[in-house]
Structure formats: C-alpha cells, structure tokens
Amino acid sequence: MLLAAPGSAAVPPGRLLVLAAAVLALHLMLLQAAPGPVSLDEPLATRQFITRTIEINRPAAELPAGAPAPVPEPAPLPAPVPQARPRAAQAEPLSTPPAAPAAEPVPAPPRAAADMPPSPAAAASSPPLPAPAAEAAAPAPREPGPRATAFSIPGSVKLLYNVTGEIKKQAWNARGELLWRHDGSSYQARSEVSAFLAGTRTQTSAGRITPEGLAPARFSDKSKTELAAHFERDRGRIIFSANTPEAPLLTGAQDRLSVFLQLGAMIAGEPSRFPPAATISVQTAGPRDADTWLFTVEGEEKLALVNGEMAALKLMRNPRRDFDMKVELWLAPALGYLPVRTRLTQQNGDFVDQQLRSTDKP
Questions:
Q1: How far is it, in rounded angstroms, from Cα 301 to Cα 309?
Q2: What is the DSSP string of 323-345?
Q3: What is the model's pTM?
C-alpha cells in the first residue's frame, strides 16, 4: 500500500528505496568526516614509533624473552652507537648486527688519557687505537765513532827486548819480554821488565778474542804491590782495585798492555785504512783510571835493531794534558804488526825504551 499526500501523485516504491539509500550514504559520509577520538581505518602510528625507539636503543642482551621483532623501517636510519653489555653477560656470544650505513667516526680520546686503561664500554664500542709513536721500539744505540772492519791476530810468540831508561837523570839497563798466547777464543799477554837491584815489574792482560778484536777482562800492574782493573761488560763499567772511581766501559776499550796488540791487529787486518796522518782513538785503562788515547800514524821507518834493520810502522800518542805520557810505538809487518819497539816518556823526561832483541817460542 502506497501513501501519498492529498493532491500529489503517488511515488513508485523503487524510487523510495533509492532515495532512502542515498540519504543513508550521505549521513554516513558526514559522520566519518567529523573529528572523533577513534579512527578505525587509521594505523596505530603512535604505538609503532614507541616500539621502534625502544628496539634501537636497547642492547640485544637486554630484550625480554619473546619480544616481537622490530617493525621494518621505510628508510634506513644511521647505525646507533653500540652500548656496553652488562658484566654478567660478557661471557655470552654477541649476535652479529645487520649491515648498516657507516656511522660518523668517533673522535679519539685526548693523548693525556691515552695511557689510561680503556673502560669496558670504550673497549666494546671503539676499535683498538694504534700505539703512540713514543712506544715504538727504540733504535739500537750507535757505536761511538768508526770501527775497524777486519782484524788479524798474530800467532803465539815470545818477544825478547833490550831495555834502556832514565829516572831522574840516572840511566839504567834491563831485560824485557812480551809473552803472547791465544787459542783463537781467549788470550793472555804478559810484559815483564827486570833490572838488577831495581826488581821486576810485570803487567798482564787476559780476555777474549771477539769480532772486534781483543776484549780484556782483567789488567794487572805489579811491582811491589799489585793493582788491577776489571772490565765488567755486563754492567758496562771498568772497576779499579785501587778504590778509585769507576769508569764507563766504551766499545773497543783496552788496557795499557793489550792496546799495543789491538792496534797491531787492526792495522794488520786492513793496512790501507791507516795511511800516514790517520788517527785511531782507543779507550785505554790503567790500574787506577781510564782515558782515551789518540794515536796518529806517522809512517814507515827503518829500525836499526840488534839483529839488523827492520821495517816498522810508527804510531805516536802525544800528551794532551799535564802528566800525560808520550807513547811511541813501532809495529813490524814482518812479525804480524807486533811491537818491535816502544818508548814511553813522562812529562819530567823519565823514559823507558825497549827494542826487540830476538823472538822465541811461547
């Protein structure tokens, strides 16, 4: 049954249904456009932001069991700075984080704090820093001055000398000998001068034969009493039994007997390195002290010895200070540059001059 207003035409039922549907749709659209507390089709943006923040800043070791995986990001974010794990969880293996864009480099700590042990957080988050340059291995110390490159050690022999001298204008004569023995690794040298009514004076030197020539271990000088110098190479010191101050032990150091044999071995090893005017510096220890003796090569001379002439290379040590001793030394190439003559002169004019008389077996 259709209703119609008086005087109006009747409306077909189909058109009524269409009108009703249109009105209902219009009301629904107005309802959705109006502001309201809840939107059914809107995603939970606030919940998603909170969850992402927590997951990024909390270390993996602190996530509760069964926690949901982080929501994937629409765009990559900078990698967060890793945080230290609690001490109780240090033994647990860390999972490898996914690849992420490189973060900005973390500035290195100031040098003043570089020597402090790193904190656990710094050790976990920062790569190891290179060692400062000051901690690099120090270069080996340089040797003091040039060194001989070759040595030639003469065989064992006994040299016999005629000795003349003068003390306070009084001349005297004596016999002397130099006994030189070695086995290729160690050596012994003994110089002895005996004079009638004056007694005997003996100097000895003992030590090793090394790639640098002779390395004395002990030197002694004995007349009425004996004094000695000890070369303590492990400490780098020369010790004197006279209770005088110690001396530093330098490379190539010799004593007052071995120095003549060392000079001969150096020159015999490479004669071309020691032309006239060449100088040789050797630390030389006596029974009470050590000093640097500077020798100058003066050239070859012909010596008139008891058994005839012999060619010898002369070296001279001139005094540099008061009370220094003048040393003249002649080394014979025919005898492996062993000393065939030595002359020692004190500042007051006293001297000792010994010249080769003959050679013998040791």
A1: 10
A2: TPPEEEEEEEGGGTSEEEEEEEE
A3: 0.61
**Is the CB of residue 212 less than 8 Å from the CB of residue 200?**
no
Instruction: For 289-332, write each residue's pLDDT tens digit.
Output: 999 999 999 999 999 999 899 999 999 999 988 889 999 999 99
- Both tokens of residue 74? 């629409």
Please choose, from the candidates 149, 83, 154, 151, the residue with its C-alpha nearest in 3D space to the C-alpha of residue 122: 83
Mean pLDDT of 194-221: 94
The answer to whether the CB of 264 falls within 8 A of the CB of 219 is: no
Token reading at 237: 């010191």
Q: How far is CA 143 from the centre of its chain?
A: 14
Say which DSSP state 62 is in. G
Describe the chain by its helix, strand, coil percentages, rounded to 5: 20, 35, 45
Please state, in angstroms and rounded to a whole number, the distance separating the CA atoms of residues 315 and 294.
10
- What Cα–Cα distance (Å) separates residue 261 from each residue in 38, 231, 284, 312, 335? 110, 17, 12, 14, 12
334 is written with which tokens? 């025919």
Q: How far is CA 277 from CA 106, 153, 184, in A?
A: 65, 24, 32
d(CA 86, CA 145): 60
Distance from the first to the final alpha carbon of the chain: 159
Eight-class DSSP state of 270:
-
Which residues make beta-bridge pairs with 215? 208
Listed in sequence order, the residues at least 6 apart from 3 whose beta carbon sits closer than 8 Å to its beta carbon are none
